[in-house]
Amino acid sequence: MLSSKNKEKIYIKCIESIRSNAESNKLKFISKLLFESFDSWIFCGFYFQDNENLLISEYSADKIPCSPIGLDGVCGAAILKNEILNIKDVNTFQGHIVCDEDSKSELCIPFDFNGMKYVLDVDSNIYNAFCEIDVNYLAKIIKEI
Ligand code: SME
Q1: Is 87 close to ligand 1, i.e. is its CB under 6 Å away?
Q2: Domain, as residue range, for 96
Q3: What's the structural domain count of the chain?
Q4: Sign (positive/negative) of CA torsion 28, 30, 32, 35?
């Protein structure tokens, strides 16, 4: 498990890299950069709301993610409640949508972009992978979009 200090270092480097990058597709750049920065992450991507569904936008992952998905999973709940959801064990979340059976914990951060509802979704292959550090830095990163 990453120490808090090392985790912060990784996020600080990521933010520097995002700020200095000219790539116009920020969602693509950010999902790839974050995915490649954390060993335990098996999915990092963005979904956006299309009526009763969520559609995949940019992502980096071990496996091809499911799309469209309903609003009854973790991503949908984060958007509907407009709340950050840090699920320490995905098996405890009723309605969790399994895209990759290796996913053990998941963090979803909803935000508005281009007049639409988006969610940054991150999955890890270890339980309890995410903490306040992830929430704070990922929220900062979303502000860079
Ligand atoms: N687990 C999510 C679905 C998206 S995947 O994790 C990539 C959910 O329950 O909404």
Answers
A1: no
A2: 4-143
A3: 1
A4: negative
For residues 134 and 107, the answer to whether their CB atoms sit within 8 Å is yes
Distance CA 46, CA 59 (A): 6
CA of 76 relative to ligand 1 center, distance in Å: 9
What are the DSSP E strand ranges found in the chain? 41-50, 53-61, 69-70, 85-87, 105-113, 116-124
> Which CATH number is 48's domain given?
3.30.450.40
State the pLDDT at residue 1. 78
- pTM assigned to the model: 0.97
96 CA → ligand 1 middle, Å: 7
CA distance linking residue 21 with residue 78, whole number of Å: 29
What distance in angstroms lies between residue 14's CA and the mean position of ligand 1's atoms? Answer: 24
Q: What is the mean pLDDT of residues 36-51?
A: 98
**Alpha helices in 22-92, H assignment, sequence order:** 26-37, 74-81
